[in-house]
Amino acid sequence: MSKTLETVPYVDLNKYAGKWFEIASIPQRFQKGCTYTTAEYTLTDKGFVLVENRCNNDIANKNKSYIKGKAFVVKNSGNAKLNVQFFWPFKGKYWIIDLSEDYSYAVVGHPNRKYLWILSRTATMDDGTYQHIISRIKEKGFDISKIKLTKQ
Question: Of the candidates 44, 51, 95, 105, which lies 20 to 30 Å from 118 by C-alpha distance?
Fold first, then answer.
């Protein structure tokens, strides 16, 4: 059994809020056919983060695919661990495992290492930054052969 997945020590949710572009991911069934994928996070005064995911989905014969959910911060996690809920009562773990100092990119994973998203504030990422992130993801025990670039 591999060691516990480490998250970043602290996330400033005010800086994290806003729009992110998916650069790459370990593709999931619910994302099949998605291109131009974005996630937007909005802080609420109700104690949770509003999560809005969008993509173009040609396979589903839809121009756009949209889902809205809520993210709840796990206590004593430095805001780096959240539980995201799109369908009640199911919640998924959303752990921020890498984050640039200037909040220009983030990497989100699941402790089982079967879910992973590389996010950026811009629709593209320079290859040097991307390769550096990939090497750190590999060190954290993810199977990098499963990571696929997202068409933006």
Answer: 44
- Summarised one tens digit per residue, pLDDT across range 119-132 is 999 999 999 999 99
Number of folded domains that form the chain:
1
Residue with tokens 């121009």: 63
Reply yes or no on whether the pLDDT at 83 is more than 80: yes
Residue 2 has what pLDDT?
57
Query: Is the residue at 3 inside a domain?
Result: no
CATH of the domain at 135: 2.40.128.20
The residue range of the domain holding 94 is 13-149
Q: How far is CA 96 from the centre of its chain?
A: 8
Residue type present at position 4: T
Unique residue bearing structure tokens 């100092």: 101
**0.85 cut: is pTM over it?**
yes
Are 69 and 40 a contacting pair, CB within 8 Å? no
Closest CA to 147 of 17, 28, 67, 14: 28
Kind plus residue range of the DSSP H or E element containing 53: strand 49-57
CA distance 83 to 63: 29
